[in-house]
Design a protein that fits this description.
This is Retrotransposon Copia-like N-terminal domain-containing protein. It holds the Pfam family Retrotran_gag_2. By secondary structure, the chain is an all-alpha fold. It folds into 2 domains: about 5-115, no CATH class; about 130-175. About 55% of the residues lie in helices and about 0% in strands. The protein contains 6 helices and 2 strands; from the N terminus they run E-E-H-H-H-H-H-H. It has helices at about 35-45, 65-85, 90-95, 100-130, 140-155, 160-170; strands spanning about 5, 10. The chain has a two-stranded antiparallel sheet. Helix 4 packs across helix 5. The radius of gyration is 21 Å and the shape is elongated.
């Protein structure tokens, strides 16, 4: 049974029940999966009504109203728990002293922002330098290329579909 925090109108997990049912891969130490991790964690926080804590919309009420303050603290700690349970040790060590979800989220974003450029370079290179293999189903290989294109889009590099088709064709042609 889901209860609501007073004045917050947000779902809460009943005491004693866990809501950590997601098998999200942990954020790698070097951040190679940061964009995918960020996307997945963002959706987990959204479905639990906690995303407003990381996007800056919902801030510490800083009020003397103990009910409001306690409700915010519980939501903040729930979001912080969701995030930190999905980190490997190195990313965790960079945020484990923090107690505010938005600060934690912002720190992780700053830390792995540079990884984005490296990931884009790697994916573009891999998209055009890979070779299709007769030992693996063609559909699986083409889907892997499309997935790379989708990751590039999530990183801000939007490739025209004809560009992806050229990459697929180039990868099927033997190189000399």
């Amino acid at each position: 049974m889901t209860t609501l925090y007073p004045a917050m109108n947000q779902p809460a997990v009943p005491k004693g029940q866990s809501n950590c049912l997601y098998n999200i891969p942990l954020l790698e130490n070097e951040g190679s999966n940061f964009q995918q991790w960020k996307y997945r964690v963002g959706w987990v926080l959204r479905i639990h009504g906690l995303y407003l804590l990381i996007d800056g919309t919902e801030k510490d009420p800083g009020t003397t109203n103990l009910v409001l303050q306690e409700a915010w603290c519980l939501r903040n700690y729930e979001a912080l728990t969701q995030i930190t349970l999905m980190l490997k040790d190195k990313p965790l060590s960079s945020v484990m002293h923090m107690e505010i979800t938005k600060d934690t989220w912002d720190t992780l974003n700053r830390r792995y922002k540079g990884v984005r450029k490296q990931t884009i370079a790697y994916l573009v290179s891999d998209l055009f330098q890979g070779m299709l293999n007769d030992e693996i189903a063609l559909e699986d290989q083409l889907n892997a290329m499309l997935q790379k294109s989708q990751i590039l889009t999530s990183l801000g590099l939007i490739l025209d579909k004809s560009f992806i088709a050229v990459a697929m064709t180039a990868n099927s042609t033997p190189r000399r």
